[in-house]
UniProtKB/TrEMBL annotation:
Its cofactor is Co(2+); Zn(2+); Mn(2+); Fe(2+). GO terms for molecular function: initiator methionyl aminopeptidase activity. The gene is map. It comes from the Bacteria. Substrate binds at residues 87, 185. It comes from Cohnella boryungensis. This is Methionine aminopeptidase. Monomer.
Length: 257
């Protein structure tokens, strides 16, 4: 390992039991908010209305939406509809029967953060859309299963790849997971396209977000004119699920569940 790699590895936080409890408390609140949002996703509601609900929900519980203001981002949620992969801006357009909407947010509670995302079906969706949702969830869980002490980041990517039905679904390479704790984005970067046995070795006490993004058709993406929304180049649907995960001695511990 060269000196640069040694410094990068050393910068990854190893959390104490007390620190993990702080992140876990934020994660439990994020999980409750995620369920409340899921109950509200339906045809005829706008993502801006969901955003306002989330901000009130967190404020009433002494927490905050950490991404609001992060690099100038103006909302409490990211809301990605259909061909939007991530970083979609909430707006007043009404969700329609058959849409997919991914809600992504970071909860800050007592200085600790947890990150989660979920792709919801709006009413009844097509067989293809439901298949994408199911495989995106499987991809996340397959990646999480590899998040063990002694494994490497590439093992997580290989786990994601195994859930793509032999390449029937694309995996977006330009965006990945990350460490999290006191800040939204901490080392390491977590790729979801890669090879088993490569990358940083995982150690007990690390905390990562595992959040692969799958697409129908090409996984190539571009940033829309609003400067935030990431969309599929070919207009295919996208889906994403995300948990914040702690690396424990006996395996991964999901903190947003």
């Amino acid at each position: 390992m060269d000196n640069g790699k040694r410094r990068r590895a050393a910068s990854i936080a190893i959390r104490t039991r007390e620190e993990l409890e702080g992140i876990s408390a934020a994660g439990r609140l994020a999980s409750r908010l995620r369920r409340e949002l899921g109950r509200r996703v339906r045809p005829g509601i706008s993502t801006l209305e969901l955003d306002r609900f989330a901000e009130r929900y967190l404020d009433e519980r002494g927490a905050a939406a950490a991404q609001k203001g992060y690099n100038g981002y103006p909302y409490s949620l990211c809301a990605a509809v259909n061909d939007c992969v991530c970083h979609g801006l909430p707006d007043e357009r009404l969700l329609r029967e058959g849409d997919l909407v991914t809600i992504d947010f970071v909860v800050e509670l007592n200085g600790w953060m947890a990150d989660t995302a979920w792709t919801y079906a709006v009413g009844k969706v097509s067989r293809e859309a439901e298949g994408l949702r199911k495989h995106a969830y499987k991809a996340m869980m397959s990646g999480i299963a590899r998040a063990r002490p002694g494994s490497r980041l590439g093992d997580i990517a290989a786990g994601v790849e195994e859930a793509t039905d032999n390449g029937a679904y694309g995996v977006v390479a330009q965006y990945g997971g990350h460490g999290i704790g006191r800040r939204i984005h901490e080392p390491p970067e977590v790729p979801f396209v890669g090879f088993a046995g490569t990358g940083v070795q995982l150690k007990e006490g690390m905390v990562l977000t595992i959040e692969p993004m799958l697409t129908l058709g090409s996984p190539e993406v571009y940033i829309a004119e609003d400067g935030w929304s990431v969309r599929t180049m070919e207009g295919g649907l996208a889906a994403q699920f995300e948990h914040t995960v702690a690396i424990k001695e006996d395996g991964p511990l999901i903190l947003t569940c």
